[in-house]
Amino acid sequence: MSDNTDTSLAVVVLAAGQGTRMKSALPKVLHRIGGRSLIGHVLHTASGLRPQEVLVVVRHERDLVTTAVAEIAPGARVVDQDEIPGTGRAVQVALAAVPDFAGDVLVLSGDVPLLEAETLRALIASHRSTGAAVTLLSAHLTDATGYGRVIRDADGGVRRIVEEKDATPDEAAVTEINAGVYVFQAAALRTQLAHVSTANAQGEMYLTDVIGLLRGDDLPVSATTAADAAVALGVNDRAQLAEAARLLNQRVVRRWQLEGATILDPATTWIDVDATLAPDVTVLPGTFILRATAVAEGATLGPDTSLVDCEVGAGATVTRTDATLAVIGAGATVGPFAYLRPGTYLGDKGKIGTFVETKNSTIGERSKVPHLSYIGDTTIGSGVNLGAGAITANYDDITKHRTEIGDEVHTGSHNVFVAPVRIGEGAKTGAGAVIRKDVPAGALALSVAPQRNVEGWVENNRPGTAAADVAARARSAQKADDGSQGQDG
Ligand code: UD1
Ligand code: CA
After folding, report:
1. Which residue did the predictor score with more confidence, 398 or 325?
2. Contact indicator for 380, 398 with CB cutoff of 8 Å
3. Active-site residues: which are they?
4. 268, 280, 402, 444 — which has fewest CB within 10 A?
5. Ligand index nearest the alpha carbon of residue 38
6. Which domains does the chain have, with CATH numbers?
7. Which ligand is nearest to the CA of 18?
C-alpha cells in the first residue's frame, strides 16, 4: 500500500453482465476503444483514485474477463456473482468480499468507459462534504433511451431512479439519466441491498432501487450532474461502441494538438490512448497511430497510414504506409505504399520506398530500398543502395535464411538474393543477377549470361506478321542509312 492510498475508498466495478445487445462472442467489457478494453479504461481510471480496494464482479465468460483484469490491474480482486441477476446483486456479492470495510463505496460500470478520474474525484469530494448516504452522477441527454431516469421531488431532491422498462410515459419523458456511477456509505448500502427485490420488468435486483429505499428511510441522497454528458455514455451495443470510440478519439486528438502536434483532420485521425506524439509532429488525414506507437519531434505521418506499436524517429516521413512493430530512424523516409512487418529497423536517413515490403530486417543508416522490393530476414549495412526490384529469397521451402549486405554495397536492378548469402562491403552486382554465392568485398557479381542477338529471327520465323513487316522496313532503312553514311565517309 503506497502512502497516498485512500483507505476509506473501495471501488466496485460491475462486469458480470452478458452484454446481450452487443451480439458478440466476446464479453462486452473486453471490446476495445482507443486500443484498450472497456474494462481497461474503467480500471485505469479507478486506479488513479488510489483506492484501498478494487473489486471486479464477474460471471459471464468469467475466465476471459478475469485474465484481462489480472493483466490490467493485478491488485484488483475478482468476485463471482451467483445466479441471482442484477446490478444490485453484483454490488452485494462484492461487499460480501470485504465484510469489514466501512468507508465509501464507489460503484462503476464496466461499460461506461469515458469517465475521467477528475470527475470521480469531484463526485467523492462532494459526497464527503455533504455527508449524503449516496451521491450519484447524473447527466442531461437529448436522447435518454435505454438509461435509468432520475426522478426528482417538487423541491428538486432526488427521490428515486426508474429503469426505462419500468417507467410510466411521464417518467420516460425525463431526460436526466443515471450514469450508473455512485458513491455510497458502505453501511447504508449493505443495509438497503438486503431489501432490494427482483419484482420489476427484468426480474433483476436493481442497484438503482437502493436510491428510493434510502429516501424512504429519510437518509440524504445527493446527485452531481456531469458538466459534459458524454462522460456518462454507456456502451450497450455496437453503435454506442463506435460513438464512445469517436468521443474518446476526439479527446485524445485534442490533447496532442494542445501538446504541439499538427493534426489536420481529427475526424479521420485515430490515436490510441497509449500512443505518444512529440511536438511539431504533423499528421495528415486517414492516419491510425495505434497501440504503443511513439512518434518523435517533427515527423510527418500520412496521409492514409497505419502504425501499430512503431517507433518513428525525429523528422522522419511516413507516407501511405502500413507498419507493425517497426522502428523508423530519424530523418528516414517510408512509402508511399510501403508495408513494414514486425522486426523492421530502418536506420537514420534511410529509405524504404514505393511498393516495398520488409520483415525481420535491419536496414542501416543512409541505406535505401527505393522501389518494388521484398526484404526479409536481412541485415543491410550503412550507405547501401538496392536497385529496383530487389528480392531476398529467404525461404527454401523448409526454413528461413538470412541475407547479409555489407556497407556501401550498390546492387543492380532486379536482383534475387538466394539466402543464406553474404555480399561483402563495397561490392556491386549487375542487373538481373541471381546471387546464390557469397560476393567478396569490392567484387562485381554478374550472373546473367552475355546477350546473343539472332539477326532476322522475326522475318524468318513470323513472316507476314505486323512485327515482321515493321522489322523488314526498319532493317532496310537502317541498311540504306548505313550505305549512305558509307558513301559520305
Ligand atoms: C444500468 C442502470 C441504469 C443506468 C445505466 C447507465 C441498473 C438497474 N440500471 O442500466 O439506471 O442508466 O446502467 O449506463 O443498474 N452487471 C453485473 N451483473 C448483473 C447485471 C449487470 O455485473 O447481473 C454489470 C454489467 O456487466 C454492466 C453494468 O453492470 O457493466 C450495467 O449493466 P447493464 O445491463 O448494462 O445495465 P443498463 O441496462 O445499462
Ligand atoms: Ca449499460
Report:
1. 325
2. no
3. 371
4. 444
5. 1
6. 6-232 (3.90.550.10), 238-445 (2.160.10.10)
7. 1
